[in-house]
Design brief:
Number of strands: 4
Radius of gyration: 20 Å
Structural class: alpha+beta
Order of helices and strands: HHHHHHHHEHHEEEH
Number of helices: 11
Oligomer: single chain
Strand order of the largest sheet: 1-2-3-4
Helix content: 40-55%
Distance between the termini: 59 Å
Largest sheet: 4 strands, antiparallel
Number of domains: 2
Strand content: 5-15%
Length: about 270
């Protein structure tokens, strides 16, 4: 039954190329989906069924319009959605269908490869980062998982210029201690909401910064390299408020957390 649903949703995207068909509403109060709507009214999606609907509609649309085939699978769908989220953040009033076409052209130009049937995640990709933080939902040793994300002084200096780098190294040495910080969502916080972008996009795009705390506006001038960066939160199903962590950064071939960097400036 699930397979039939997936193929049906992908077919809807393909059908829309030929007939202009759109899904106008959800009978159970879910996402009101019309690809002609402003993308900012639809993205980012957080509910599983909405991710399936938007991702597979986009896959079918791209296949029908330009022959770009995105293999159907959880990782491939998440990668496609992250690209849609990032593109929409730069132009939230653009119709979703326009964003899908833009991302499709970008995929074709960059010759992005989606791995079919593989559990290997591209290091530093949104799917890779999400897999890391999803581990906190079921882990029995969250303290150990958190400890693996604590940055070294060298890694802090790879991201931030002085004087912020030294201030952060000193501050993190006090607050990012195993006894002080453990990423531990509550039992009822079973869903993950995340937004992945890059440091360059964070600097250049106010719409990308929309998803991050306002304190980042105070430290943008201290970034010295580009790298993947994310903010995420664990929430109850149907909620968008919960345990929030910002500053997940991929540097030195691993993910680390450098949360609330503006605090080091304010406290010194």
């Amino acid at each position: 039954m699930k397979v039939k649903l997936i193929f049906a949703l992908a077919f809807i995207g393909l059908l829309s190329v030929q007939t202009g068909y759109t899904q106008q509403s959800s009978e159970e109060g879910g996402l009101l989906f019309d690809p002609k709507m402003a993308c900012g009214d639809i993205l980012p999606v957080t509910q599983t069924i909405d991710k399936v609907m938007v991702g597979l509609w986009a896959s079918g649309y791209l296949a029908g319009r330009s022959g770009i085939v995105v293999p159907m699978g959880e990782v491939s769908n998440e990668v496609l959605l992250e690209r849609l989220n990032l593109a929409c953040a730069q132009s939230i009033d653009a119709p979703l269908v326009t964003i899908v076409e833009y991302v499709g052209e970008d995929l074709a130009a960059s010759e992005v490869q989606f791995e079919v049937g593989s559990t290997d995640l591209i290091p530093g990709s949104p799917a890779h980062g999400r897999a890391i933080i999803e581990g906190f939902l079921n882990s029995e040793d969250r303290a150990a998982l958190t400890a693996r994300l604590i940055p070294t002084a060298q890694e802090v200096r790879m991201i931030y210029a002085e004087p912020l780098a030294s201030l952060l190294i000193d501050w993190y040495s006090k607050v990012l201690l195993p006894d002080n910080i453990v990423i531990s969502p509550k039992p009822e916080q079973t869903e993950l909401i995340s937004f992945f972008t890059t440091i360059d996009e964070l600097i250049e795009s106010p719409k990308a910064r929309f998803y991050f705390p306002g304190g980042y506006n105070e430290i943008l001038q201290y970034f010295i390299t580009d790298a993947p960066i994310a903010t995420f939160k664990f929430v109850r199903p149907g909620n968008d408020v919960g345990l929030t962590i910002n500053g997940l950064i991929y540097i030195n071939d691993r993910w680390v957390i450098m949360p609330k960097p503006w605090r080091a400036l304010r406290e010194n």
